[in-house]
Amino acid sequence: WLERESACPVDNIKLKKDDIFPDNFTRREISQQRTKCPNIIRGCLVELSPLDVEAHLMICEYKAPELPENEKVRCSFVDVGCDEKFEDELELQRHLEQFVQKHLTMLSQAYTKMMVNNNVASSSSAIAQQANFWDPPAKNESPTLSQDENLQGLLKALYEKIIFLEQKTREQDIIIANMSEQISSYNLSVMKLHQRYCNGCYLWYFNDFKSKVNAMRENPHIMHYSAGFYTSANGYKLCVRLNLSPKDNNYIAILIHVMKTEHDNALDWPFSGRLSITIVHPTQPFRSIKETMMTRPELEAFKRPVLDLNPKGFGYTEFALLEELIEQDFIYNNQLLIKVQAQP
């Protein structure tokens, strides 16, 4: 700072080095500290001030003897790029302990380079192999070579190429199948995260509405369940059920079921709170159909489930008339949107 500005930061008076007083207090504080000689690993037990370490190392009887460059100990990782040299094995050991991360990085870079070189070599070999499948007859070839032999050579080359391409296709199919499986697993994980962290507000897109309704008319025992969702990250797990009303199949019934979780023992039972069910209109929100209900602790539907799904549900057996849903355009792209809010 003094060399750059040459002025006092308070009053901007020009200063010289002679105007600066040495900080003897700090020097005295440092000199009172005691540290061990770096050659302690070789047997030196001297304790001294940090200010005197450099001078002591020049005369320390335990210091490592200076060796010529060709006799120094090389780092064990010299093959992957570490060029450090040491006077003895003790210094090498200390270096290996202090620079573990550096050596790991060098190993990783060397491995990556080796893999790239191997891939390039494999690709070159495959191209060379394809190029050698079949060679056309030379111009100066003897005319005695029959046409049948040429055709046989061509067919053999084509057969070998087909085998090669089939093998490559199978390899690609395996890679695609593995990637598809990974993507499916990732999508499932993302969906589970959405269900766990929806804070009790769940949107159920009931797809293929018309065909499902027709199937339920033919078989009244068919019921459709949504995926399970949570009131909070570690809260209650619920799901929605939709089926035709057993009293009048012109109505749809919407009920809510409590589901079993791995942390049910940490929750208060029976489940108590407010439940809201809304059939959302896709273009005119004010026409949406919404019903709100309070839970009833005495009902089996809200007690701690023994099975994965509590067979008893709670809701409305005649929530909405099918004809009204269709006439009032609640069905968009053959899809019905149901919104459920659960507040314990």
Automatic annotation (TrEMBL):
Source organism's superkingdom?
Answer: Eukaryota
Occurrences of domain MATH (ranges): 199-342
GO molecular function per UniProt: ubiquitin protein ligase activity
Q: What organism is the protein native to?
A: Anoplophora glabripennis (Asian longhorn beetle)
Q: Please name one Pfam family that this protein belongs to.
A: TRAF-mep_MATH
Which keywords describe this protein according to UniProt?
A: Receptor
Q: Which GO terms describe its biological process?
A: innate immune response; lipopolysaccharide-mediated signaling pathway; regulation of canonical NF-kappaB signal transduction
Protein name, per record: TNF receptor-associated factor
